User: Fold this.
Amino acid sequence: MGEADVEVGMNEPRTEIPINKIKPNPNQPRKKFDQAALDELADSIRQNGVLQPILVRKQGSSYEIIAGERRYQAAKIAGLKEMPAVVRDVSDEEVFKLALIENLQRSDLDPIEEAQGYKQLIEENGFTQEQLGKVLSKSRSAITNTLRLLDLPEPVQQMMSEGKLTAGHARAILAVPSEEGRIKLAEKVASEHLSVRQTENLAPLFSGTKEPNAPRVPTPKSYKRAAKLLRQMLNTNVRVKNVRGKNKIEIEFSDEDDLARIIELLEDSSLEADIDGDR
Assistant:
């Protein structure tokens, strides 16, 4: 199904339907309507009438809107008793799809509404992202990027719906791994009206991926004395240190012969200690 399926054909029969017999689509992907824009459209309808019929389907004794709810809402404000419509026989599966396409054609959805619409189409129709892209004439990557907006915390999604953040801002905010970091960055962007580039530059600072450096504990003097004594005794570099709470002695050797030499020195030292102990 392509985008053209939403358009009302010139040869399709049109009829005037009483407004009180028309009801909105409960699954309309667009969740809110700008009141000022509706009032402006209502003024135009009072002067010029409804220039383009809405698209509906018969539901018992009433008609459910498939496409054109904005015109319907404005017509009610304008006080119309009836309005032009084209009646189509459309299945339940197709209604939401047509409503989403119509809103996308007119750019009437905010990015979050668009993402929610994509998700609903995928879940209800079993689409892959690629199949949905073909239905909506969009690339799979565009579908993926839009769906990712639903990974944003609810407060950030609300800012997008209110127009305080763009999709570009959202993509930059998504680079922050934590929910808390995403909310803090979004609030800063919205309050300071930052650009997308500025948001991208700030994102690493809100990621919280770098752990604060632990204060360096000075090596005890006894460790240093022990390391010096062992270096002199074994004639090689020796380190005495604490690593993650564990005390360690590291003895360097160049090859197997050097290792054998060190072992021999340690054995001789051990033998001498035993003899001294026997005395």
Summary: DSSP finds twelve helices and seven strands in the chain.
